[in-house]
Structures are given as C-alpha cells and as structure tokens.
Specification:
- The structure is a single chain.
- The protein is of the alpha+beta class and 266 residues long.
- The chain has 2 domains: 145 residues, Fructose-1,6-Bisphosphatase, subunit A, domain 1 (Fructose-1,6-Bisphosphatase, Chain A, domain 1), CATH 3.30.540.10; 106 residues, D-Maltodextrin-Binding Protein, domain 2 (3-Layer(aba) Sandwich).
- It is built from 7 helices and 15 strands.
- The chain has an 8-stranded mixed beta sheet, sandwiched between helices. Strands 12-11-13-15-14 form a 5-stranded mixed beta sheet, sandwiched between helices. Strands 1-2 form a two-stranded antiparallel sheet.
- Strand 9 and strand 10 form a beta hairpin.
- Helix 5 packs parallel to helix 6.
- The longest helix is centred in the N-terminal third of the chain and has 22 residues.
- The protein is globular, with a radius of gyration of 18 Å.
- The model has no long low-confidence stretch (mean pLDDT 95).
- Belongs to the inositol monophosphatase superfamily.
C-alpha cells in the first residue's frame, strides 16, 4: 500500500478537481440540448450512453494523461488501464444517464482514487447545479452556489423517523426487492430515482439511508469515500466492504446501519 504524504495528497485532490472541471465543460453543452440521442448498451432492457458520457470520460482521461500518467484507470465507457503506482482512478462520466436524458439534475460525475484497500478520495459533481462534494484525505466538504461548507452525516434516529432513497423501485432481483421493502415499510419516507445525488444528500446530512443492488465499482467508490469522510458508512448487505459494488447499504451512522442491515438479512 502506497503512503500518501502531503505533496501526494495535494496532487490527488487537485487532479480530482481538474477532472471534474473538465467533465463539466464536456457535459454541459449537451444537457437539455435539442436532438440528444442515446445508444443502448444493454442486451435487454435499456442502458443508455450518450455523446456526453463519452466526451466526459475522454476529458477526464486527458487530465490523467497529463497529470498522473502512471496511475491506473477503471472507467465505465473506455475500460481499464493498468498503472504502476498502486493508485487507480475509478470514474463514472455520468452516473444517471437516464436522468440526464430526461433533463433532471440528479445525475453526476463520479471520481475516486483507490489503493489496494479501496477508495481514499472521492468526488461527486453535479455540473448543472454547480455542487461538488469531496471527501477523503482529511477533507469532507461541499462547494456550491451557497459557498463552502463541511459535510457531516445525520445524527442517529430510529428507522421510523428515517429517510431512505434508492434509484430503481425493483431494487435488483425479486429477492433483493423484498429485502428492500422490509426496510422501506419501516422508514418514514422512501424516495426513488435519485441516482448518485442520493449519496451526496446522505453525506450532506439530509437523509439517512441509500440501499441499492447491482452496482459496479465506478458507481460506488466515489460516493463511498465522500460518505465515509462525512461520518457515514457504506457496506454490502452482509456488513462487509463493497468497493466493487454489488448490493450496497449506505448509512448516516452505525445505529441506522445496524437497524437496516438486520431487516435486509431477515
């Protein structure tokens, strides 16, 4: 495992910010633009990708080629690049392409840099709103239209007072969906369709839980680092680390995590 000194810490944060800036510039001309089309990557169902996804990832890879050419890359659209430093950039150029196509500002750019243990720094960027959530390496902050503030997750509260988010109502397999509903039936409020912005709201102290299934590494590593830096925790549905995705439980604090985990496993 590579040690991260002050100089490397500053370089990694600056690189993540530069990548997010480049992605914003590549994406925003396409958002709510006339004539935006999408290709379907799925063999069945609908898994869209647009020119904005591709332009965003290419822009971020160009920043890495300039600033961190020896690091590895794991990206959604253009695959993996092996590195030699022990650090890998895990990038999702647009998380929530369905939302992007629909004109709703709940999509985002996800960036993480990881070592052998998992993400050490993460970033969730919402270009249209102008909000950037960054966490890890001693940072937990939101920069947005209202300025900068520290990110901190919500204090403990019982599940009947909690707010739960997910993206798709079916939440994976029928068995996964049944487990999710055991939690949702107890929560005060359940909301759907928020994509990565749900994780940002959890880190910002607005909600208590995000529960999803079928995620990839590039879907969760950025949000994981941000949430953990803000005081929350992210595991799989067994309580184990989940840097490669799968079934994910993100919680504002250990107490609400334990309550939700028990219901998922019931």
């Amino acid at each position: 495992m590579r040690q991260i000194d002050d100089a490397l810490r500053e370089a990694l944060i600056a690189t993540a910010e530069a990548m997010a800036d480049a992605a914003r510039a590549a994406i925003l001309p396409h958002f709510r633009a006339d004539g935006l089309s999408a290709d379907n990557k799925a063999g069945h169902g609908f898994d869209p990708v647009t020119v904005a996804d591709r332009d965003s990832e290419q822009a971020m890879r160009a920043v890495l080629a300039d600033r961190r050419p020896e690091d590895g890359i794991l990206g959604e659209e253009y695959g993996d690049v092996a590195g030699t430093t022990g650090l890998t950039w895990v990038i999702d150029p647009i998380d929530g392409t369905r939302a992007f196509m629909s004109g709703t500002p709940t999509w985002g750019v996800l960036i993480a840099v990881s070592d052998a243990r998992g993400p050490v720094l993460g970033l969730i960027d919402q270009p249209y709103i102008g909000e950037r959530f960054l966490g890890g390496l001693g940072e937990a902050r939101l920069d947005g239209p209202a300025g900068r503030r520290v990110l901190k997750t919500r204090a403990p509260r019982p599940l009947p007072e909690a707010i739960l988010f997910t993206t798709f109502p079916e939440v994976g397999t029928p068995e996964d969906g049944a487990a999710f509903r055991r939690v949702a039936d107890r929560a005060r409020l359940t909301r759907y369709g928020m994509d990565c912005y749900a994780y940002a709201l959890l880190a910002a102290g607005q909600i208590d839980l995000v529960i999803e299934a079928g995620l990839h590494a590039y879907d969760i590593q950025g949000p994981m680092a941000v949430i953990e830096a803000a005081g929350g925790l992210v595991t799989d549905w067994r309580g184990a680390p989940c840097p490669m995705g799968g079934r994910v439980l993100a919680a504002a604090n250990p107490e609400i995590h334990a309550e939700a985990l028990a219901l998922l496993q019931a």
